[in-house]
Write a structure and sequence with these properties.
With 390 residues, this protein is of the alpha+beta class. The protein has helices at 7-15, 31-42, 67-77, 133-142, 163-169, 183-192, 205-211, 248-262, 282-295, 327-331, 340-348, 358-369; strands at 22-25, 47-51, 78-79, 85-90, 96-102, 111-114, 117-120, 122-124, 127-129, 224-228, 240-244, 267-270, 273-276, 304-308, 312-318, 375-379, 382-388.
């Protein structure tokens, strides 16, 4: 997708198979059919559509697909409109292949418009298909249009919230006596505060995780799973284990307590001397857990995993960093908030740095302690922060 193809490059693509980035289309493809493939690629990682190459890899003349016709599909069929790249390559005297390049979109999800209807498509391997509900939610969240933590929790009701925690939330408001409100007034206040979802009337993910009586009853995957091993690798023997399933502040503090409990040995014997082993402060350890809780993707049904080995700590959370933020960008202080409500709540409680300095301070502390640099890796929609202990 980075510039026009040479004839030999096109020949290599045709000799291969359709895949996540390549689609063959007969020259007789309809505008709607072409729009479907464009939509699938722009909702995924982008790709090329070769018009004039059928599924049996036979070539046909695609000169009927001039640039204006292709651009009209991108502008009139896709919503929001896209501008693909266009290339005509003369294969021989009788046949022209048209190559359309589609870049990954920044305003996902994109849809194909047809009269009054809208249909979404996603490229999965060599096929373009309609996304599942969860996939469509992730596409929407990737654009930043909908905060991940403000989605409704299916099946949850206002009764799943803790009256005690709600009372504390509104404690001290001069113009609002939450305890004196009737049920209808309370529901309206909680909806305005984004604790309840305006359409379902039940708690949002953030509302349940911050003020729920037992959040894991409705969100069994939104927990922190902690394991400590007595070695440098995963073994059948465990030193300690805990599943933290309370509200987000309890998860953060419980995760910190687990780390403190399993990092209690602060020295080692070298020769005849006992030498203090450098270790991260509680503040940095707490922020690593807090960042995992506040930045994780709540559309992915999996727990945050905290693993303690004798030489390192690994904290793995569901979801890649939002909006294309890279580990390198995080290191220099770039921070994009996926879950605004949770971020604000943990900031109010003093459990997370509100200005995005947490990762920067983590690297600074490692340097001060003489420890190897932390490592941030993203793989298969999971983000792992590794802290070396020696």
């Amino acid at each position: 997708m980075n510039g026009p193809l040479a004839r030999d490059e096109l020949a290599t693509l045709i000799a291969g198979e359709e895949d996540s980035f390549t689609e063959f289309k007969d020259a007789r493809v309809s505008p709607a059919g072409l729009g479907k493939e464009m939509c699938a690629f722009v909702n995924a990682a982008g790709g090329r559509i070769l018009i004039g190459v059928d599924n049996e890899k036979r070539l046909h003349d695609a000169s009927c697909w001039d640039e204006e016709r292709v651009m009209n599909v991108g502008r009139m069929t896709i919503d929001p409109p896209i501008i693909p790249t266009y290339q005509r390559l003369q294969w021989d005297a009788q046949r022209t292949v048209v190559i359309i390049g589609v870049a990954p979109g920044a305003e996902k999800p994109y849809a194909v418009r047809s009269n009054e209807s809208r249909r979404y498509y996603l490229r999965v391997g060599s096929t373009s298909r309609e996304p599942s509900r969860e996939e469509l939610i992730r596409l929407t969240q990737a654009s930043g249009a909908v905060a991940s933590d403000l989605r409704p929790v299916l099946g949850a009701a206002p009764e799943d919230l803790s009256e005690e925690l709600l009372a504390k939330r509104f404690e001290g408001h001069r113009t609002l006596d939450f305890g004196a409100l009737d049920r209808e007034q309370r529901l309206r206040i909680l909806t305005d505060a984004e604790i309840l979802h305006p359409e379902t009337g039940g708690p949002t993910i953030a509302g349940l995780l911050c003020f729920g009586s037992k959040p894991s009853n409705r969100l069994p995957y939104a927990i922190v799973s902690c394991v400590a091993y007595p070695d440098v690798s995963v073994t059948g023997e465990l030193s300690d284990r805990a599943d933290l399933d309370g509200c987000v502040d309890q998860q953060v503090l419980g995760g910190l307590a687990f780390l403190e409990r399993n990092l209690r040995s602060g020295s080692e014997v070298r020769g005849a001397l006992r030498v203090e082993r450098p270790r991260y402060t509680g503040e940095r350890l707490r922020e690593v857990i807090a960042n995992a809780v506040v930045h994780r993707h709540y559309g992915i049904a999996g727990p945050i995993q905290v693993r303690v080995f004798t030489d390192r700590i690994e904290v793995t959370s569901p979801g890649a960093p939002p909006n294309g933020v890279t580990p390198e960008a995080m290191r220099v202080g770039v921070s994009v908030r996926r879950n605004q409500f949770l971020m604000q709540r943990l900031t109010e409680l003093g459990l997370v740095d509100a200005v995005g300095r947490g990762v920067v301070l983590l690297y600074d502390e490692a340097a001060e302690l003489g420890l190897p640099e932390p490592r941030i890796t993203v793989q298969d929609a999971w983000t792992t922060v590794t802290l070396h202990l020696a």
